[in-house]
Amino acid sequence: MKRKIFFIVSLTFFTVIMNAQKTVKITKIPASVEEFVEMRNQIATSPEGGAAMFLLALKMYIEQPDLAKQCFVTIVDRNSLREGNVYKGYQLLNGDMDLIKRQMANNKLIPNSYIKGAKPENNYSVKLPYIYEFTSNRYSGDKAAGQFKVFAACSGASSPRPMSLKRNNRGIWKLTNWSSVLVGIAKPPIDDDL
Q1: Is 77 exposed, middle or buried (0-12, 13-18, 19+ CB in 10 A)?
Q2: How many other C-beta atoms can be found within 10 angstroms of the C-beta atom of residue 47?
Q3: φ, ψ at 142 (rounded to 5°)
Q4: What are the average pLDDT values for consecutive 10-residue runs of the chain, which has 194 residues?
Q5: What are the C-alpha distances in Å from 96 to residues 76, 80, 82, 124, 192?
Q6: Dihedrals phi, psi of 156, to nearest 5 degrees
Q7: Collapsing DSSP states into helix, strand and coil, what is residue 194?
Q8: Structural domain boundaries in the chain
Q9: pTM for this one?
């Protein structure tokens, strides 16, 4: 009887954990902001999808910063924007863009650390498709109310990193807080071939 109860409790706990985990798969890197918006409209219909699109824009920033800046405008909440000439008369708030610039200059591997398969031991190497893993918990909020927090798995950190999102009037989930995903990551081992 004890084994049966333990099995049921374990199965219930496992089911709760599994229900809280979601993955988002990105199969290509957009070549334009229009392609990014088209992809966003398909993927960012959930908080996890919105978070994945932001992480993709962060990855794009390493190779194409000007395009990524446009993409940021399309995936963050309107309250994180100001008037500017980056995309459709808007740009990220100066402090937010400065933080992205500074952190990416310090470590260009941060965006890769959120992609499944990247780890310090392989120098955070990634290839398409990119798979992002997210969890949530009972304190994440209420999706029906239009505000939710997800936690992005990060191979360069000891725990997942929070990202807060808000659903806009068109049903697209956009970031309201993402500063934790810009924090440093574990350094790859040094290859000492001397």
Answers
A1: middle
A2: 27
A3: -125, 115
A4: 45 45 97 98 98 98 98 98 98 98 97 97 96 96 96 97 98 98 93 69
A5: 11, 8, 11, 25, 37
A6: -95, 10
A7: coil
A8: 24-182
A9: 0.89
